[in-house]
Design a protein that fits this description.
The protein has about 280 residues and is an alpha/beta fold. It has two domains: about 120 residues, Quinone Oxidoreductase, Chain A, domain 1; about 140 residues, Rossmann fold (3-Layer(aba) Sandwich). The chain contains eight helices and twelve strands. A hairpin with a 2-residue loop joins strand 4 and strand 5. The longest helix is centred in the middle third of the chain and has 14 residues. The two termini are about 40 Å apart.
Length: about 280
Amino acid sequence: AAGLCFSDTKIIKLGGDHPRLYGRDLANDPIIPAHEAALTIIAVGENRREQYKVGDRFVVQADIYFDGVNLAFGYMLPGALQQYVLIGKEILDGDDGCYLVPVQAETGYAEAALAEPWACVVRAYRDVRRSDLKPGGAVWIIGTPGAEDEDYRLAGAEYAGVPRRVVMTDVPEGLAGQIRNLAGGAGVQVTTTDRFSEISEAELVENYTGGKGFDDVFVLGSGSPEAVEAADRSLNKRGRLTIVTDKPLPRPVNLDVGRIHYDETYYAGASPKNPLAAYRKIR
């Protein structure tokens, strides 16, 4: 059985521009969609016969990573809108192990295929985000006009995760001094950049994260929507953006909200008196 997801209609609309297709030329390199699937094994290769047998049933955990690359089932890998699917090493020996989930004999095919969308619903109600700075990660802190007038306090920072590097741009000196003192005792590299108006966030991402993006980004104050937009573009997968202000921004900001789904990015606000409060678990 195969279900149809709204994301499948997005493939029709966006083609190779769909975030999971990486610009693939579908006219010359088409795909077979459908990632909500219940499968039954009808043949097993010689090297896998001790692990699988004809008649075994599975659903596919579609968010497949192989050698660090997302090769989602029904996107980069052929999906379930075909009579037969070849399950290869990307699924059987992926970065997280095997992406096949066993199904009991009494479970219906449609019931099993709905496991993936129902799992999305369950996940939406669970607060599983990071509750700390990413240990060994990269942090970018950006000050905006007016941020120098605030009294920033890093309450509980000594108990926070210890990043590998902190990059500061236009950070008020009082807060910058607190950060240097904390970082010095923990062996964290601290770098101060040129002013925000003189830098490229793409170059910072390349120079300080190897192109992956920052794991934690803080924008201080509400004086620059452009800084918020740059911070969003600079986020790593599963990165967190915290806007530290109690004042409204002067205009709406352009954020790639699709990354919340595809890259598990997270956005929060916090008071200048306790920026790290944004990492507290939601009760």
